[in-house]
Amino acid sequence: MSRTIQPPASAYFIEAEKESAEARTLALLVDNEPGVLARVIGLFSGRGYNIESLTVSETEHEKHLSRITIVTRGTRHIIEQIKSQLDRIVPVHRVVDLTRVAGDDGETGPIERELAIVKVAGSGDKRVEALRLADVFRAKVVDSSTTHFVFEITGRSSKIDKFISLMKPIGLVEVCRTGVAALTRGAEAT
């Protein structure tokens, strides 16, 4: 009687768990000095990571500190790598994944806002429709003529994306966006 021996199950044949990429908002507190932004951006470009949104401004003048808010996309593992590598850059004081921080009320996710200036051309019915949509989205008219409008709109990026997509068939001419500004919920500082 012959017995067939089955080979042991190998980890090589176990299907890898596929983790999906998701957008993350990172806040960095850095020294406000020449070259810091270039070093941060260099880390992303050198490793092939994309930046979807980037805002930078001095936040503490006396201490010469700036805040960089970056929206990027990646798996949990990639985001942890990015945070770890950012933490090693000398002028970086703190890196916080705002997407994962809970506020005092237990809600997760940051408060995010973006500003966009949107130029739309049109006359007649298209002009009326542009004004109606601007009212629905609480966009403010900051410039107008008989042939165009320039709207200012603030809110979450998804709101701005929707506004822009609705303005395309009406006569979208140009868009300028600031990028995401974000803070954690609750009383604690990031």
TrEMBL record:
Domain of life assignment: Bacteria
Organism of origin: Aureimonas endophytica
GO cellular component: cytosol
Keyword set includes Lipoprotein: no
Keywords tagged on the record: Amino-acid biosynthesis, Branched-chain amino acid biosynthesis, Transferase
EC numbers, comma separated: 2.2.1.6
GO biological process, one term: L-valine biosynthetic process
Protein name (Swiss-Prot/TrEMBL): Acetolactate synthase small subunit
Class of this enzyme: transferase
Domain ACT: 25-100
Gene Ontology MF term list: acetolactate synthase activity; acetolactate synthase regulator activity
Function recorded in the entry: Catalyzes the conversion of 2 pyruvate molecules into acetolactate in the first common step of the biosynthetic pathway of the branched-amino acids such as leucine, isoleucine, and valine.
Biochemical pathway: Amino-acid biosynthesis; L-valine biosynthesis; L-valine from pyruvate: step 1/4; Amino-acid biosynthesis; L-isoleucine biosynthesis; L-isoleucine from 2-oxobutanoate: step 1/4
NCBIfam families tied to this protein: acolac_sm (TIGR00119), PRK11895.1 (NF008864)
